[in-house]
């Protein structure tokens, strides 16, 4: 059974979906979508997800320890697995991710897989930047991407 929960975070409203076993989706809710909110029951897994997100936003959690089950192609899943390996507070380019997954020429395809990431933040697609170091493409918008990267940088400096 799919459960949906809306979490009011420090960066805005986030929609979390879980299957009873794992996180299946985590997206940002735009102001236009706020009036269509229908919420499921708050399960133990949803409580743990929110706890870990709170810790992330407070700067005390660097790695998520949650079961995830993103739906996508084998290529997308390979890219998302590589994204999870990007250390907190660091960034990689699309080309670097392409090399990590063993396909040097796949930078554009990595970008497309990044764009289809169904579990934002936990699969940290915000840590992927352009080859020139610029912030490019993010489902939640570049302003949000910048906020997440700044949050991680501040937390590292505080340690």
UniProtKB/TrEMBL annotation:
Catalytic activity: a 4-O-methyl-thymidine in DNA + L-cysteinyl-[protein] = a thymidine in DNA + S-methyl-L-cysteinyl-[protein]; a 6-O-methyl-2'-deoxyguanosine in DNA + L-cysteinyl-[protein] = S-methyl-L-cysteinyl-[protein] + a 2'-deoxyguanosine in DNA
GO cellular component: cytoplasm
Catalytic machinery residues: 125 (nucleophile)
Methylated-DNA-[protein]-cysteine S-methyltransferase DNA binding domain sequence ranges: 74-153
Stored CDD domains: ATase
A GO molecular-function descriptor: methylated-DNA-[protein]-cysteine S-methyltransferase activity
Chief localization: cytoplasm
GO biological process: DNA alkylation repair; methylation
Residues covered by the Methylguanine DNA methyltransferase ribonuclease-like domain: 6-70
UniProt xrefs under InterPro entries: MethylDNA_cys_MeTrfase_AS, MethylDNA_cys_MeTrfase_DNA-bd, MethylDNA_cys_MeTrfase_DNAb, MethylG_MeTrfase_N, MGMT, MGMT_N_sf, WH-like_DNA-bd_sf
Enzyme Commission number(s) from the entry: 2.1.1.63
UniProt enzyme class: transferase
Superkingdom of this protein's organism: Bacteria
Location in or out of the cell: Cytoplasm
Family membership: Belongs to the MGMT family.
Role this protein plays: Involved in the cellular defense against the biological effects of O6-methylguanine (O6-MeG) and O4-methylthymine (O4-MeT) in DNA. Repairs the methylated nucleobase in DNA by stoichiometrically transferring the methyl group to a cysteine residue in the enzyme. This is a suicide reaction: the enzyme is irreversibly inactivated.
Misc: This enzyme catalyzes only one turnover and therefore is not strictly catalytic. According to one definition, an enzyme is a biocatalyst that acts repeatedly and over many reaction cycles.
PANTHER family reported for this sequence: METHYLATED-DNA--PROTEIN-CYSTEINE METHYLTRANSFERASE
Name under which the protein is recorded: Methylated-DNA--protein-cysteine methyltransferase
Organism from which the protein derives: Clostridium saccharoperbutylacetonicum N1-4(HMT)
């Amino acid at each position: 059974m799919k459960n949906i929960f809306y979490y009011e975070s420090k960066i805005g409203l986030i929609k979390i979906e879980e299957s009873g076993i794992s996180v299946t989706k985590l997206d940002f809710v735009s102001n236009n979508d706020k009036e269509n909110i229908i919420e499921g029951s708050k399960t133990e897994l949803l409580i743990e997800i929110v706890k870990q997100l709170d810790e992330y936003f407070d700067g005390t959690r660097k790695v998520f320890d949650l079961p995830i089950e993103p739906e996508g192609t084998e290529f997308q899943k390979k890219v998302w697995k590589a994204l999870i390996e990007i250390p907190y507070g660091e960034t990689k380019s699309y080309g670097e991710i392409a090399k990590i997954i063993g396909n040097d020429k796949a930078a554009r395809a990595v970008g497309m897989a990044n764009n289809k990431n169904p579990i934002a933040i936990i699969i940290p697609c915000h840590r992927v930047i352009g080859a020139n170091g610029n912030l490019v493409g993010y489902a939640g918008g570049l302003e949000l991407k910048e906020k997440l990267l700044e949050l991680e940088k501040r937390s590292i400096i505080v340690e």
